[in-house]
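=== Given protein ===
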Amino acid sequence: VNEEISVKHLPSTEPDPHVVRVGWSLDSCSTQLGEEPFSYGYGGTGKKSTNSKFENYGETFAENDVIACLVDFECGEEVEMSFMKNGKWLGVAYRVRKELLGGRALFPHVLVKNCAIEFNFGQREDTYFSVPPGFTFIQHLPVAERVRGTLGPKSKAECEILMMVGLPAAGKTTWAVKHAAANPSKKYNILGTNAIMDKMRVRRHPPSPLAVAPRSASPSPLPQVMGLRRQRNYAGRWDVLIQQATQCLNRLIQIAARKKRNYILDQV
């Protein structure tokens, strides 16, 4: 199976503005590609990641590069995932035993920040680069061989919003996470600063002085490691982290009001 992705950067004033990670995930995985089991990503920093474990792989890629995502289901008891950059094969990135997947389908997945992405699932008359022997574009597979992902609510009337109520540290976030996991077909989006901070991961090494410079009276932050939770790198600057998370939450709530999805509002 093959797909092509072309990258274009969008303007941004942030010191580290552009993130692109492509790969494959199960339908049950979250949007954070490569940060949980059965989610397999390859990022523009030249890293591959699954379950938040980052390793060197391939080459860095950026604007105007074309990445092909390949999955081989016909190599014995394993499924092999590999990538190509501008027509150059970068080697096998992941080998996963089919028994671990349990017959569950892998879906194309992309994680971006301040980037525009153009996909080619086979709908283009001309491919960016030639397709490797033995592979075919997803769109060319017969419909009977495809697996449909979970369908969201068809109308806002069918959407479900749960609002957590209770004192701080009463267990609201724990309940929300467990409830979302117990009802995967609902695909709940948990909205709250705790959920946002859990997703704020470090992606660069060494650290950016603008991002983690501590106040003079505060202890030095820990060295940044790929995939590490950002809270651990903000020693003495908790107010900065909370402010960033709150700004993100306000924006997410604005977006949520326009989308047909199921939400859990987890914010005191």
About this structure: The chain has two domains: 3-145, 156-201+231-266. Residues 238-256 form the longest helix (19 residues). The two ends are 45 Å apart (CA to CA). Confidence is low (pLDDT under 50) at residues 203-225.
